[in-house]
Amino acid sequence: MQTRSTKVALPSSTPSVFAGLADRLNDWRRTRCRGQRIPEELWEAATTLARAHGVCPTSTALKLNYYDLQRRLGGSSGKPKPVPKLPTFVEMASGKPDPGTVELIRSNGSRLTLRLSNPKSRDLLPLVQAFLRS
To answer: What is the distance between the alpha carbons of residues 66 and 57, in angstroms, rounded to a whole number?
Structure first.
């Protein structure tokens, strides 16, 4: 019975793109101490190549862990994750709230209730911003 190879075949022009960094990584691997992490400059060069040529060919050619390289790119797509938008409005209660009480409710149900004796906007703003960012 004939067996199949599971190795990724790289195009013939691709290895020359990775050759310089592959040599630098091999030199580092020969001279490193056991347990030493790959230097950031080598990871940065590898992520630059992965953005241009893909994670799988880059990790195969440079003998790097696929998932570590993918994580350094910021996920499977290599695109940064979108920053969630902050709410654009504040609802004011129509009842008669206690003076000095501010209550914030996020869409996920988390609440922040502040009861201050003499509130000033300069004191409240950092607390509200921190709550909305979390």
So the answer is: 9
Whether 104 and 56 map to the same domain: the answer is no
Mean pLDDT, consecutive 10-residue stretches, the chain (134 aa), reads 57 70 91 89 92 90 92 66 65 63 79 78 78 78
Domain's final residue, options 73, 99, 124: 73
Give the tokens for residue 55.
């994670």
**How far, in Å, CA of 65 to CA of 88, rounded?**
42
Write out the two tokens for 102: 């501010």
Beta bridge partners of 113: 103
Which among 58, 61, 40, 38 is positioned nearest to 50, based on CA atoms?
58
Gap between the Cα atoms of 70 and 80, Å rounded: 12
Cα distance between residue 116 and residue 106, in whole Å:
20
pLDDT recorded at residue 78? 46
- Neighbouring C-beta atoms of residue 64, cutoff 10 Å: 21
What pLDDT, on a 0 to 100 scale, did the predictor assign at position 81? 60
